[in-house]
């Protein structure tokens, strides 16, 4: 009887302290310093309004007033850091070759028309700018715009060169980098711990485990940005969502229920960790993300997100 009472008292005490620290995490952790606030984030520069990852797309988004550009990096055979989502050029340029096998000067231009990855049956037709840019071009053109860099491959030279460019252009305070791979994120952090890193998939799963066990308020976190999908939008990407199997629907519902938690988002933002939800292209998705407490939204349609934020009085 005494043992049961002791265990019950200990469990109750643990639960109360966990709930208290979940709501007021700065009682235990020093709030991370936020160098910038990203509410409006342009995915690949705004892949629904200009050809993805082009200077034209980035300029359009910056002119609109985007808070952050999201882009992807690869390394050419002559060790130039280029901005491209795909390692293989076939989808974006119609050439069956890998960026890593070609010199920068030999890279083909983008196709005139590209599909928008996160919008079913939508395409973007670009203007005159079809060049695959260098990362340094982006840094030079937009010296004061925060940039979110996805290191697309596990390549030590790529990670080192991206870090060198960030340092050269004095952008440690305006850059966040990482990948879904925990191995790549660890390498990024080791290469330059002054550049904030994203949560990898492995660390997101750890984060959820800590959250649902009540341990999260007690654990220090090195990451400064949580960048996660809104699982419910995945049905929008299927050619025939009505024929989705029951098991897939259950998996999507479960993932959405576990990830999209207001208490989790509020706890992280209270610790100075920004929460970005991707890739949202519809107003009802914008509403849900911000209602849940997300810091920012990543979109293919920066004009649509700007108009939404202006309407609710949250755009700079």
UniProtKB/TrEMBL annotation:
Protein origin, superkingdom: Eukaryota
Protein name per its UniProtKB record: Uncharacterized protein
Organism: Dallia pectoralis
Lineage, highest ranks first: Eukaryota, Metazoa, Chordata, Craniata, Vertebrata
């Amino acid at each position: 009887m005494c043992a049961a009472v002791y265990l019950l008292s200990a469990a109750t005490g643990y639960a109360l302290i966990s709930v208290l620290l979940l709501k007021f995490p700065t009682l235990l952790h020093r709030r991370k310093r936020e160098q910038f606030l990203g509410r409006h984030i342009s995915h690949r520069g705004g892949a629904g309004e200009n050809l993805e990852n082009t200077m034209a797309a980035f300029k359009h988004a910056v002119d609109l007033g985007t808070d952050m550009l999201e882009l992807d990096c690869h390394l050419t055979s002559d060790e130039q850091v280029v901005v491209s989502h795909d390692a293989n050029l076939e989808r974006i340029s119609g050439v069956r070759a890998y960026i890593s096998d070609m010199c920068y000067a030999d890279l083909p231009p983008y196709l005139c028309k590209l599909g928008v990855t996160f919008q079913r049956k939508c395409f973007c037709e670009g203007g005159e700018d079809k060049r695959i840019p260098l990362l340094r071009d982006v840094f030079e053109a937009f010296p004061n715009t925060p940039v979110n860099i996805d290191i697309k491959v596990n390549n030590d030279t790529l990670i080192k060169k991206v870090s060198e460019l960030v340092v050269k252009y004095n952008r440690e305070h305006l850059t966040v980098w990482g990948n879904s791979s925990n191995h790549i994120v660890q390498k990024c952090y080791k290469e330059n711990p002054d550049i904030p890193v994203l949560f990898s998939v492995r660390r997101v799963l750890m984060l959820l485990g800590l959250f649902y066990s009540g341990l999260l308020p007690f654990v220090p976190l090195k990451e400064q940005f949580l960048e996660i999908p809104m699982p419910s939008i995945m049905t929008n990407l299927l050619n025939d969502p009505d024929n989705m199997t029951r098991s897939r629907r259950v998996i999507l519902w479960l993932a959405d229920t576990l990830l999209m938690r207001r208490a989790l988002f509020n706890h992280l933002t209270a610790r100075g960790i920004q929460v970005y939800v991707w890739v949202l292209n519809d107003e009802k998705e914008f509403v849900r993300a911000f209602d849940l407490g997300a810091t920012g939204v990543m979109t293919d349609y920066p004009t649509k997100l700007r108009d939404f934020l202006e309407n609710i009085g949250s755009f700079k």
